[in-house]
Write a structure and sequence with these properties.
AhpD-like; 208 residues; mainly alpha; Single alpha-helices involved in coiled-coils or other helix-helix interfaces; 11 helices; 2 domains; globular
């Protein structure tokens, strides 16, 4: 069964509108996205209805997810998936679940994180990181010094603890915007990186 066809539940700008309203820098960024991803992510098209907010979103996303950090890109995407799973954000679960599959080369890891990260046989470092992100998402007022100490014991520096908190906070915010506007992920996300990385055994020929 295909998902709903809309980009979001309120009007989203068409390509013609984007061509007319976006500044040259954002047009270039959108073209790079299309070239690298083969599509324009619907979250960008949605935010493009408010160009100033789009610039803020793009700058924040690029800094958090692609900028310098001792957290790996995979770890940042893992946080995004666990937060989005906790919030039941369909858009972010589909989009960032695909990113986990791509970065890890492991479609099973993506599925486990999407449904219940606790079933995944993760290293202690990542388990503690995701436990913190989950608690910060579900019960932020109950986060105490012990939780930060647990991150330190798992090997995280103060800089990394800041990045975990910042990434978790960003996805809680973006989840709520995506849910409120009923954003739909691009259908392409569903099909990408489903086959495990590496050579595959050829299918057996059926006997006639």
């Amino acid at each position: 069964m295909p998902q709903p066809k809309h980009v979001m539940a309120i009007s989203a700008p068409t390509d013609a509108v984007l061509e007319r309203t976006l500044d040259p820098g954002l047009k270039k960024y959108f073209n790079i996205c299309r070239e690298k991803l083969g599509m324009l992510p619907n979250v960008l098209r949605s935010y493009a209805s408010r160009p100033k907010k789009l610039s803020t979103f793009v700058n924040t996303y690029n800094e958090l997810m692609l900028g310098e950090s001792k957290l790996s890109k995979l770890e940042r995407e893992m946080i995004a998936v666990v937060v989005s799973s906790t919030n039941h954000c369909y858009y972010c679960l589909v989009a960032h679940g695909q990113a986990v599959r791509e970065l890890s080369g492991d479609p099973e890891l993506g599925e486990m994180l999407q449904f219940n990260y606790r079933v995944a046989p993760l290293p202690r470092r990542q388990r503690v990181m995701l436990d913190f992100a989950y608690k910060l998402t579900t019960a932020p007022a109950t986060v105490v010094q012990e939780d930060r100490d647990n991150l330190r014991k798992a090997g995280f520096s103060d800089e990394e603890i800041f990045d975990i908190a910042d990434t978790t906070g960003f996805y809680n915010q973006s989840n709520r915007v995506a849910i409120a506007l009923d954003m739909m992920p691009n259908p392409e996300y569903h099909y990408r990186n489903r086959v495990p990385a590496g050579p595959q055994k050829p299918a057996k020929k059926k006997k006639k």
